[in-house]
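Entry 14. Ran structure prediction on the chain below.
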Amino acid sequence: MKKSTKLIVALLVVVTALAVTYRLMHRVPSADLEANAQMQQLITDAGCLRCHTSTPDLPFYANVPVAGKVVMEDVSKAYRAFDMTQMEKDLKAGHPLNPVDLAKVEKVILDGKMPQAKYYLVHWGASFNDAKKKVALDWVKNHRMGMYEDISVAPEFANEPIRPIADSIAVDVRKVVLGNLLYHDTRLSADNTVSCASCHGLDTGGVDNKQYSEGVGGQFGGVNAPTVYNAAYNFVQFWDGRAGTLAEQAAGPPLNPVEMACESFDQIINKLAEDKNFVSAFNEVYSDGLSEKNITNAIQEFEKTLLTPNSRFDRYLKGQKDAITKNEMAGYELFKKYDCATCHVGEILGGQSYELIGVQHDYFADRQAEMTEEDNGRFKQTQAERDRHRFKVPGLRNIELTAPYFHDGSMATMDDAIRAMAKYQLGIDLPQEEVDKIVAFFRTLTGEYKGQLLTNKNMNI
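Output, structure tokens:
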């Protein structure tokens, strides 16, 4: 073959390669595809599931000494921060999507963080142009709008990751009355000294403001008590998610040997049965009378009423522009800038996913305290290694009232908690000015209970 012919062939190969590359880089899903199918194509083209999964599709250079180390570190961090496997399954099945997944996808696209440049320089079709970004962001917005049916949000805030608390949730009022009585009844404990309200006081932010709660006989548990306020919005209950409903959660403490220490619900029922007036009222609501199922159901109905709507931030989202200050608004913008609003989403700014504590740094190595079984988090229930040190994300409503913070109650102040999250989740050291602004934003999240601003008798608020 002549040199000129070889040159022409080589040029054709280069031109063809460039053309293919251009098409890959600029290919936008067909408008004829359904929205979820469009997003699936974008995820496939971007290679998201090559890293954000337990079974990564590693490239050939993952075995190269220097490059391979970088690849494996990136894959590990990607999987630790966001496993997209379930989202992909939900997409294909047409199931509702997790608002946390939506928020994470939206944020990395808005920031231009994903796909990373070092990835799409090798995998050309992975890059996101403006047209692809629009498809993805519209997809997020449409799904988010479908999740929330409230019409009170001002139009300009309709696509915010945070939503106002509802004024009420549908309940059976008769059961609520019984549940209220049971919630405050110490007969649910073995020695008649501890009630639900002992650790989740309604006048102390729904918590007890202790690192660990005190049960019968002065025993202390090993995990910080989460607030009962707005718990109806949690997708599961307890830090490790071992209860799927409020009723299941209510069944736990009475039989916990450290908390209420009853041997069985029969022990509780026998004590309650001695109260003829209570039994009569209970039988009017529940035809089958006293039982574990009915007791926990009544407590659940009562806890569904423990909502704290009408915070200053809620009023702001509903259109009252003077409800918060410029400084507090700046705190909210920082909250979003630093990815806090990718896990702390929805009505209670959390409670919708399990997340790893220590994505960027080892929280437990720095804590200088002995590791406990509670530190394993979700792993306690699943025994899946990925779930070790993953916890249900706490809601941030009324956070100024609920110190100390984290599952281990190790953070005494909001400042401490914010700095720790920045370090261990993001790998950054926030300046005090920014911490102060985020704290100011957090103070706007305190809502009302029974029409009165929620306060805490343990605090000067």
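Residues 312-453 form a domain with the Cytochrome Bc1 Complex; Chain D, domain 2 fold (CATH 1.10.760.10). Will compare against last week's run tomorrow.
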